[in-house]
Amino acid sequence: MRKFIDLHTHSTESDGSCTPAELVKLALEKGLSAIAITDHETYSGVQEAIDTAYGTELEVIPGTELSTCCKVSDDFSAKIHIVGLFIDINNKALRDKTEEYKGYRIKRNYYTIDTLASEGIDISMEILREKYGSDAITRAHVAQYLLEKGYINSTDEAYTDKYIGDNSKAYKKREYMDAVEAVQLITGAGGIAVFAHPLIYDFSEEQLQGIIDTLKPHGLMAIESEYSTFTSAQIEYVKKLALKNDLLLSGGSDFHGTLKPDIDLGTGHGNLEIPYEYMTDMKNYCKLRDTK
Fold first, then answer.
1. pTM, entire model
2. Domain limits, the chain
3. Cα(171)–Cα(110) distance, rounded to whole angstroms?
């Protein structure tokens, strides 16, 4: 019987609706063999997930997801996400840097919420924290709140100029970590740096190759070939890209719970299957690397 995994999930420690413990229980219900907790700029929920999974057959992989900017050339810089898997959650350098950027995220969200409140919307950080049970409030939570309160008819409407879109009054630019530094931090914490969902950015083949060429010398070791929105043709394309660049394969649903209700844990839109062998290959790579 084949075993399946999900190496890209989010909990209430960032912008998911399930607690780390609930994520573990859901993974067990779905018969997954492993999940990675990859919250944005934090891994504070990892230990809770590990403790919840203790005594079960589910493996919990410590992870995080970092929002980065990769400078490929003077003419091209790419905003991309880097997932770190198998990280040491006690590594000081990675912990300090993720806390720094988590702080930027919190300040950014306060700005957004306070601006909306000044426009007459009944909203505050305290209301959102109480409603969603999270200290890590994000734009996704704000969009969900606006929908539930009847200010908008769909969450897509939230991301317009009137509310929290990139050109709205309530929008504050995100601080991006340097991608090379992010890869080095993940690798320095014993982890594997993964180029997350590489085809959602609409980069050209040349641009994708440029990103890989920039990051691989600094430790980029894997790429997400399976992802909730990828077609079978896109999956094969990324696999060929991985083979060409000697990268390991990874995959994940990018599960957020009710904040992205059309994406299910492990299966994405219903047809996602991430083989356990991907994780085995990563483990073997880590063992080989650590013996050098």
1. 0.93
2. 5-99+175-291, 100-158
3. 11
